Amino acid sequence: MRKLFYVLAFLPFLAQAQVGVGTATPDNSAMLEVSTTDKGILFPRLTTLQRTAIASPASGLYVFDTNTKSLWYFNGTIWVNTVSDATLGDVKSGFQSADHAGWIKLDGRLISTLTPAQQGVASSMGFSGNLPDATAAYLVQDDGTIGTTSGSNTTTLTQANLPNVNFTGTAASSGDHSHTGTTSSAGTHAHTINDPGHTHTQWTVNDDFNNSGGNPPGFTGDSAGSRTWANINASTTGISVNNNGNHNHTVNTTTDGAHTHTVSVGSGGTAAPVDISPKSLTVNMFVFLGQ
Questions:
Q1: Residue 48: predicted pLDDT
Q2: Containing domain of residue 11, as a range?
Q3: Which of 146, 185, 203, 288 could form a disulfide with 90 if both were Cys (CB 3.0 to 4.6 A apart)?
């Protein structure tokens, strides 16, 4: 009875004054101060299932989670792992292969598979249906919709993307061939033509002294008096005329001499996509949704 009396007598003092454990002068800002050099404060130790099963936890309630081996507190909405030191919606990379301490792997899973508290946080961030899938994706701030993945890690070059270089090649020259072109007729030259429309008189010298043909027009006689002339009438072909002035001819020329050909040289490519993803370190991406 005496011990009970002492405790009851001390309760009003506890309700009105500061309490010091290990100190007679607790700090004015503390309702309770524990001072020691070889001991600590032992928080209630609960499993994760027991912690999350606490009904209507008060804001600021602390519990040591024996599964995560860390101290947790309830911030009024969700439990927060003091080890994580994270804010809801934070993103991190890590070598962990699965969810841990409120960090949820961004693997595109259904949001409905998360805990009710995590579903609420995901919904508040604008996620619906599925979590973002960070597989083979890189983080970027591009003014797009948060949490969406887009683009590709490969690209296909077009001709306009190629360097400005000249390709060289050899044109095929199998067999003889000719070119049609125009030549210049600089200077005076002659042409052989056919003239089948009329006849020409041609006189030739005859040594048989038979003057039956008479003398050619304008002939004044042979000074030796020993020759006669024969008159031959025939249709003449192959006479020569001169060309007055210069003119052009369309002719077939041979390939002798220097000349060029326009050729097509293939690039040898197959339009295979080019991998533009940078050298990388493989990790997993997580978002902090709490527990």
A1: 92
A2: 2-34
A3: 288
